[in-house]
Amino acid sequence: MSRLQETCVQRVKVAFFHPSGPDSKASRPTGKKWEDISSMIQRLQQAHNDWNLYASNRQIVMETTTMDFQDITAMLEQNGFTHSDYDLQVEYERKWGML
């Protein structure tokens, strides 16, 4: 998608510590993993100031419509996060016109 986003709004959601099941104890990281997640949240907030941050279903979710998902993915990878460490969802909403 063009970074200008002239026709669509890109909604990006990044969820940290996505458990494998409802009874998973992995849903609450401790020690080094928690420090890494906390540090990454701070870095994302420093890089971009338009985030909605909330907890949902044993996850910490960061959501924005004003930062491109490719930039977010690059930041996560540069800081040692793999695709299995977070869940990234991208939704597009048409600004105007017909599909």
Describe the fold and architecture:
The chain is α+β, with helices and mostly antiparallel strands. The chain has a single domain (8-17, 28-94), classed as Dimeric alpha+beta barrel (Alpha-Beta Plaits, 2-Layer Sandwich), CATH 3.30.70. It has helices spanning 31-47, 69-78; strands spanning 8-16, 52-56, 59-64, 86-94. The protein has a 4-stranded antiparallel sheet, with no helix packed on it. The mean pLDDT is 81.
Q: What is the name of the CATH architecture?
A: 2-Layer Sandwich
Number of strands: 4
Helix count, DSSP H or I runs of 4 or more residues: 2
Shape summary: elongated
Low-confidence stretches: none
The share of residues in extended strands comes to 25-35%
What order do the helices and strands follow?
EHEEHE
The biggest beta sheet is recorded as: 4 strands, antiparallel
Oligomer: single chain
How many domains is the backbone divided into? 1
Q: Return the CATH class.
A: Alpha Beta
CATH superfamily: Dimeric alpha+beta barrel
Helical content stands at 25-40%
Strand arrangement within the widest β-sheet reads 2-3-1-4
- The class by helix and strand makeup works out as alpha+beta
- CATH names the topology as Alpha-Beta Plaits
Instruction: Report the average pLDDT across residues.
Output: 81
Question: How much is the radius of gyration in Å?
Answer: 15 Å
